[in-house]
Amino acid sequence: xxxxxxxxxxxxxxNLLPNWKTIDFENSLDKTPKYVKHKTKGLSNNGTYPVxxxxxxxxxxxxxxxxxxxxxxxPIIVFGDxxxxxxxxxxxxxxxxxxxxxxxxxxxxxxxxxxYYLKTLKIPDLxxxxxFKILKEIQVPLPPRAEQDRIVAKLDTxxxxxxxxxxxxxxxxxxxxxxxxxxxxxAVTGKLTEEWRKGKELQSPNEIxxxxxxxxxxxxxxxxxxxxxxxxxxxxxxxxxxxxxxxIEINLDKICTSFSYGTSSKSNNEGTYPVxxxxxxQQGKLDWSDLKYTSDSDEYEKYKLNKGDVLFNxxxxxxxxxxxxxxxxxxxxxxxGYLIKxxxxxxxxxxxxxxxxxxxxxxxxxxxxKTDGVSQSNINATKxxxxxxxxxxxxxxxxxxxxxxxxxxxxxxxxxxYEALKTKIEHLPQAILHKxxxxxxxxxxxxxxxARELLRExxxxxxxxxxxxxxxxxxx
Length: 476
Known about the structure:
The protein is α+β, with helices and mostly antiparallel strands and about 475 residues long. The protein contains 14 helices and 24 strands. A four-stranded antiparallel sheet has the order 2-9-6-7, with helices on one face. A four-stranded mixed sheet has the order 3-8-4-5, with no helix packed on it. About 30% of the residues are buried.
């Protein structure tokens, strides 16, 4: 944050075309009539007259009283004394509260030209201090009127095109998100590998589950055997979509060995081992930023993660509970208590499980089974163990994983290009404005004349005002 003594006023202004005339900022403005200021708090969300204030939102609210609107000439420019926000207003409006400055340029300056010039200024941030005092120190360019018109017309066209481009780009994240979900849906319904399955002799999922049961039951007796039998005979829920005939639907506890809660010990900002928390699960992946740590080796040994462990967010807001990701052994880490670690058997590909738990089907299931508290929802390990998933053969699971990863890699590449393009476009407005005021956007024509006549007009008005003030003072 800058202080007023640090301001380099030459860097505030853009480089101007050398043969343009300039005038002091204060000499570029006409007086405006008195006006009522309206505090944004308590304003209606709709009404007859918009209230324009210094906020980032173009409109701060609405009023219906015609006696409280701005009565001066239009168009005008609103400048945020605290925020540095600049707005061009060419319709009836009411003025916002403290910090809202109304600027009306002299007739020798086109209002839109003046507005665009203010948009080029690099006004340093003085916090909640006043910034209008900085404007008082700058010079305003004064090209011929015809050239001002051409600059405004060119900028209007370019910014309209930029707006269309931005609106088109704004759809891309949603399109990519929807595409990802379509891929996941195709994966868990068997459509993604429909052609691949044809003519292949694949291991029977039913035989796999029978073999797993026999191996688990081999050395069990009494209550433990009875409990295992209940697990394999139980089916609390079913899929709400069709699956291929050589797939089966099973509950997680038939194909997973444990559902474990993470550490409840307090983590620190620094330490030896990162502790993954619910904020580190983002869109099916682990986000390794904003980490907490522990240096307790006993805690690490108890809750350490192994490559392929699936992490399920058991407590979060209703919209986010059930977020799931997979640990791929990036760095040694453990997991926090709001997460459940799912240990799957070798017959269930953990990457495939991560795919299933990130589908809209799984999100719908989370919404249906969650227990709601005050602003938080919970899905415990018992409920998670009864989640029903489609179960193809291990070979097909791997093929599904390969295809999803391939398609997602292409989406990731598109996202990288999208972000780079957005960054370039975000810098375009200032680049365009600077070209305009360097005289590089439109040609300078001899037929325009020069701005000396405009300067004489302004000086003549100033002398007239000064003479009137002297006469008035003499009479008094």
